[in-house]
Amino acid sequence: MTDLTFELNINLASDLEYVNHITKMNVYAVITLLGDRDIQKVKTAVDRYGGSNPNWNHAVKFAVNERLAREGRLTLVVGLFSSRLLGDKDIGKVEVPLVDLLPSTNGNSNGHGMKFMTYQVRTPSERKKGSLTFSYRFNGAAVISGPVHQQGPMSWAPPSQQGYGPYPYMSQPPPPAGYGYQGPPQYTKNDERLANADLLVSAVSLLR
Description:
This protein is mainly beta. The protein has helices spanning 66-70, 189-207; strands spanning 3-14, 27-34, 39-43, 55-65, 75-82, 89-97, 115-122, 128-139, 145-147, 155-156, 170-171. The strands form three sheets. Strands 7-8-1-4-9 form a five-stranded antiparallel beta sheet. Mean pLDDT is 76; it is low at 106-110, 141-145 and 148-184.
């Protein structure tokens, strides 16, 4: 079988677990394609505005061996993290076997359009909390990653109240103009004091 290119757009997440006790969450995603030997990894920008409902609209392309994918030997993992001054905090992740996303028939593409999927996020304690929405398609192209420029209203999938896996999606207006990555967070003395207080609250919670 031929090599494919997996085009992926990490759209947004919603209702994530709030892992910061005092400071606002600045959330980013780490996108990893796990294989038998190779690991391909890309990090999104940090969303400094959405809190537990971050929006990235970040595009990435991975080279995919179709045979390995159809044999269930490739897995897409999207980890979510809160960027913090005193160390980033793990929020949760989504794991999807790539074979579940491949079209059912042979070929290098599943159509011209992007297919939207929403999966529930699993926290480090294996609890389901929040959801992640992404769009994707398969075809043949070079491996490139970077931000994507939205051409129209984005789509998202609201989390289901039951089960685990993909859900239908509905339209939603695009984010406000100028929304997105504005560069790395600029920490102030007040941010450092809040971060120290947040760490103290975490330590007290662990002692209870």
